[in-house]
Amino acid sequence: MTNPVLYRRRIIPEECILLKDDIILSCDEKHIVTSWHTLHPKKDLHHGSSCYFLQEGFKVSKFCRQDDTLLYWYCDIVAYDYRPGPNTLTVTDLLADVIIYPDGFVKVVDLDELVAALDSRAISLETLKTSLIHLDKLLQVIYSGGFDRLKAYVEAAAH
Predict the structure, then answer these.
(1) Do residues 26 and 38 lie in contact, with contact meaning Cβ atoms separated by under 8 Å?
(2) What's the CA gap between 78 and 8, in Å, rounded?
(3) Is 84 helix (H, G, I), strand (E, B) or coil?
(4) Full-model pTM
(5) How far, in Å, CA of 48 to CA of 56, rounded?
(6) What is the dihedral of CA 110, 116, 117, 120, to 10 degrees?
(7) Cα–Cα distance, 37 to 1 (Å, whole number)
(8) Phi and psi dihedrals of 45, rounded to 5?
(9) What are 121-157's pLDDT values in tens digits?
């Protein structure tokens, strides 16, 4: 796969955005590493780097302050839709997320959004199951001490 055009699709709120300012630092069949600045300015979050783990169903992002210090690691549970003809990759946020703070504290967030999306029929039961399976896979990596391996993809390409 050569550098695809990246899109981010959200379920809540429903939107699909071209990530026109993201810079692809490396790309192969298993990983895409990008650097970016926030789409919507936030108090502390200024920029970051991400690795799309194309076979695992998650994206690991390093969120940084303006002075380049680590705010936290943010892991999105996602689904990928690659279209070779137009060479586009749409990354759908499957709502569940994991935040890993600099002190190592792990926090799973937004599971309530999964339930709300299912109740409102914004997602199917199959999508809910996919999200939970990908979340479980990520948490197994984290809890077994393997998160440094995931971080390495982001940190190696970003320097």
Answers:
(1) no
(2) 10
(3) coil
(4) 0.93
(5) 21
(6) -170
(7) 24
(8) -75, 125
(9) 999 999 999 999 999 999 999 999 999 999 999 998 6
